[in-house]
Amino acid sequence: MVPRPTPDKPAPGQESVWDYPRPPRLEEFRGSITVELGGEEIARTDHGWRVLETSHPPTYYLPPDAFRPGALRPAAGSSWCEWKGQASYYDLVSERRTAPTAGWTYLEPTRGFEPLAGAIAVMAAAVDRCTVNGEEVTPQPGGFYGGWITSWVVGPFKGVPGSMGW
Question: Where is there biased composition of kind Pro residues (predicted)?
Fold first, then answer.
């Protein structure tokens, strides 16, 4: 059994991912979110949702109309989340670049996550830049999870070496 790490102490105005629940919680988000790919902005919104789960930085979901026309191309494959259900994938597309399977959605999310139906999350590590309220995010470590790290969220974060059992 891997021991639970010692959470970083949040400063005023910060939140600790170790205070997030398991099972995760969905909350509405009001603020600026942008996504850039191939040197161009492919998504912008001032409204979305955050999924908050113990040890994970928030995963942000954007409404489909936040994406410019042609930026979302359905991709093959699916996966299963024990909390949200079956995910479908999108390639993210700009004029200069394609990020394969860098976006995902839950078309029929499970109970409690219904507002996410059709909303799209973005793997920050697969695109040029994502921002929340003007701050560039850092992708969640490990290459598997879709959380976005900002200065107002402290860890340690699932995905770092040795975190498999958290």
Answer: 1-10
Q: Decide if 94 is inside a domain.
A: yes
Task: Give the Cα separation of 82 and 148 in Å (integer).
Answer: 20
Task: Write down the pLDDT at residue 101.
Answer: 97
**Burial zone of 118 (CB within 10 Å; 0-12 exposed, 13-18 middle, 19+ buried):** middle
Confidence of residue 2 (pLDDT cuts 50, 70, 90): low
> Which range of residues forms the domain containing residue 150?
26-154
- Say how many domains are in the chain: 1
Residue 55 is assigned to a structural domain of this protein: yes
Query: b/e map of 97-110 (b: 16 or more CB within 10 Å)?
Result: eebeebbbbbeebe
CATH of the domain at 121: 2.170.150.40
